[in-house]
Amino acid sequence: MSKEQILSSDGLPLEVSLKKAERKNKLKAVLLVAPLFLFILIIYVFPIGDMLFRSIDDRMITNMLPKTFKAMEKWDGSELPDEPVYQGLYEDLTFLKENKTYGKIIARLNYEKSGFSSLIKKTVRKINKFEEGNYKEQFIKVHKRWGQSDYLVALKNAAPKWTYAKYLKGMDRKFDQDRNIIQVDEDRRIHKILWLRTLNVAFWVTVFCFILAYPISHLLATLPMKYSNLLMICVLLPFWTSLLVRTSSWMVLLQQQGPINDLIVWIGLAADDNRPELMYNVIGTFVAMTQILLPFMVLPLYSVMKTISPSLMRAGKSLGGTPLVSFVKIYFPLTIPGIGAGCLLVFILAIGYYITPALVGGASGSLISNTIAYHMKSSLDWAFASALGTMLLVGVLTIYWIYNKLVGIDNIKLG
Amino acid sequence: MANDHFVRFENVDKSYDGKQLVVKGLDLDIAEGEFVTMLGPSGSGKTTCLMMLAGFETPTNGQIYLDNKVISDIPPHKRGIGMVFQNYALFPHMTVYENLAFPLRVRKIPKDEADKKVDKALSMVSLQGFEARMPMQLSGGQQQRVAVARSLVFDPQLVLMDEPLGALDKNLRESMQYEIKHIHESIGVTVVYVTHDQTEALTMSNRIAVFNDGKVQQLSSPDELYERPVNSFVAEFIGENNTFAGEVSDVSGDKCKVKLNSGTEILANPIVIKAKGEKTTVSLRPERALIDPETKMDNNHKGKIEEVIYHGDHTRLRLDLLGNKQFILKVPNSSNRIDIQEGKEINIGWNSVDCRALDPK
Q1: Cβ-based neighbour number of residue A334 at 10 Å
Q2: Cys-Cys link to B23, which of A111, A205, B14, B338 (CB 3.0-4.6 A)?
Q3: Of chain A residues 294-313, which have a CB less than 8 A from chain B?
């Protein structure tokens, strides 16, 4: 039995005519998807790509001192370099001075080793008086640091076009002179604390949201329509309110002379002159973030619980299971897809949360996202901000991966 | 030995909203080992009764006894009543084995004993070898069997079934009816079965309680219910029924004369009739009326064939008879069938015994 080719009624092979028949539909589908595809490309793929790129891009310094770095290629860094390096440096700096762009390299080199700022400034000021030949001697005469090999090694370390130094910085590590990775000084290890605090806050906010959302969702799913609609509006109303407004309301509520503190004093849990600080610390972050992220836990849980037939619990009870046993063995396992979805959603949102910790978190309640914002807006170290952002992204993807391994992403149910 | 009052409803009322009674003063006795069906249209209160018995609803008034004990204060999980739900209510995250083992595990029955019970219950519904399947991997009929097996696996004395066959197709439903009936016969458990399907009720039950409007209209065996309905609701609800409305013109012994609205007088069997002048609805089963009867019958009238509907094993005729244009007649499709044509006039005869004068509608 040889496999016969099946022909359609007009004599074409069936596969060909099928493709022909579906071509129009395919074209329509592609045209419909195209705007969304472009949208995602422009506002999502491109910015993230750019962020990844910025975090490792170190070409600026390389492009500004091309001749120096070219000459340095042959230098092993053990002793002071020879004349060609200094000649290259002279030519590069002269060029930069003429274009008045040398300011850019100062910040970059100062990050590599402090002391470069005054070194470069002084050298550039006097570079016009240099005579041709024997540049090494003249450089050292201008500033004695040009005669110290560690400054020149630091300069050489800035030569590669690509670097992962910003990632090391995000992990409180840096290169030493010999390109070994070491921890930064103890009093400068701030990022580790921030990462841990971010994870901690995200974890506990997820736990609190879960504890609060589970009964609410259950109520939502089981109440008669009349009441459940009202409750649903109560859940969604804050959701429709501006994030800023909600956070500001928490600031009103939590401040030292605010109603919550008044209540605590009135009950007698604290003295009037010793009111607890509920804001500008990690407590404020916890409270406000839990409230704000609660709907993200309620909605997936609700949508899963809505599908669980009430007769299952009844069956459990009629078969002899106490209400508790029936809940643990029957109801709870069936809600796991919703719990997974809700927890993943809240955790991932919490780990990158910005406005709320910025407003109510104070110094001890600020998270990694606030540091990213600081480097974007204030220190203007965009490369470092990008590196932190990338690390956050990798972290979230890791959590997603672990979740997929443990629970399976197919088990997620958002609605 | 058998307890005639194994399950007992005593003057039970139930209201959900405090304005309307869903169940009104219900009295019902069910004997041990009996198969009793609660039959009625939707909203008649039958499922509410079942839920009260299972413990998921509490009676507003009155008491329910199980084996002579008041059960109103016993929570559902301590009543030890097996239950089969309308949509099976199998636990979707457990295998068939785990579903069946659940009631045994919560009763702390040792594993080897539990395994034996599970095996026995599965063999009862001929589903051995399905232990490791998930409910989603089973067909509707198989899920139904698992649900039945699960309700029986812990040897309850009473099993409640709430329209368990409602979701199955016709053929499967019929075979499951026999299967459940045979299981009931072989293990002798008491079954209270709720359905709105009268055929199901007639085939399966020892006794049927016909519910309407929160009350039991009649509680009797299937044949009694069909042959001798006590009121027009039951007559109408069970099986097919031809009715004539009229007024009683004479009562004498086991016969009465009814003057129909069309003016003709017919002879009928006075079931609820006490005196002359009462309004009544006369009920006659289609198969009790004969065409061109050979023997002499109490009532003989001419009717015109309005419609002929072929039904395979029989043909249904819609006649215009004594002012009733919806008079249905069943003619078996045997080889010597008479000539039936629309518009033809035929003689119809029936006896007064089969023609029951009931309460007016």
Answers
A1: 18
A2: B14
A3: 309, 311-312
What are the tokens at B353? Answer: 């015994």
With CA atoms as reference, the chain B residue closest to A307 would be B92
pTM exceeds 0.80: no
Domain boundary residue among A161, A182, A199? A161
Q: Which residue of B has its CA nearest to A320?
A: B77
Residue A82 has pLDDT above 60, yes or no: yes
Give the tens place of pLDDT for each residue, B171-196.
888 888 888 888 888 888 899 999 88
Q: Does A317 touch chain B (CB under 8 A)?
A: yes
In a domain, A20, yes or no: no
Q: Is the ipTM of this complex over 0.85?
A: no
How far off is chain B from A282, nearest CA to CA, in Å?
Answer: 40
Residue among A312, A315, A321 minimizing CB distance to B83: A315
Distance from C-alpha of B272 to C-alpha of B231, rounded to nearest angstrom: 8
- Give the C-alpha separation, A414 to B162, whole Å: 33
Please indicate, yes or no, whether residues A153 and A225 belong to a single structural domain of this protein. no
Kindly compute the dihedral angle of the four CA atoms of residues B232, B235, B236, B238, in this order, to the nearest 10 degrees.
Answer: 150
Count CB pairs under 8 A between chains A and B: 67
Residue B239's SS3 state is coil
Query: Of B76, B87, B92, which has the smallest distance from its Cβ to A334's Cβ?
Result: B92
- Three-class SS of residue A382? helix
Which stretches does DSSP call E strand in chain B?
A: 7-15, 21-30, 35-39, 61-66, 69-70, 81-84, 158-162, 190-195, 207-212, 215-220, 242-252, 255-260, 265-270, 279-284, 290-291, 299-310, 314-321, 324-332, 345-350, 355-358
A317 and B87 in contact by Cβ < 8 A?
no
Q: Is A411 on the interface with B (CB under 8 A)?
A: no
| Phi–psi pair at B307, nearest 5 degrees | -155, 145
**Average pLDDT over chain B, rounded to whole?**
85
Using DSSP, state whether B85 is helix, strand or coil: strand
Euclidean distance between CA atoms A196 and A89, whole angstroms = 43
Q: What is the pLDDT of residue A205?
A: 94
The verdict on A213 and A83 lying in the same domain is: no
Mean pLDDT over B280-287 rounds to: 85
Name which residue leads in pLDDT, A404 or B95: B95
A48 part of contact set with chain B, CB < 8 Å = no
By Cβ distance, the residue of A312, A322, A325 closest to B91 is: A312
CB B67 within 8 A of CB B29: no
Residue A6 lies in a domain: no
| Domain that residue A405 falls in | 191-411
Report how far residue B229's alpha carbon sits from residue A55's, in angstroms, rounded to the nearest whole number. 88
Domains of chain B with CATH codes: 7-232 (3.40.50.300), 240-358 (2.40.50.140)
Q: Can you tell me the mean pLDDT for A42-58?
A: 88
Task: Kindly determine whether residue B150 and residue A319, on different chains, have CB atoms separated by under 8 Å.
Answer: yes
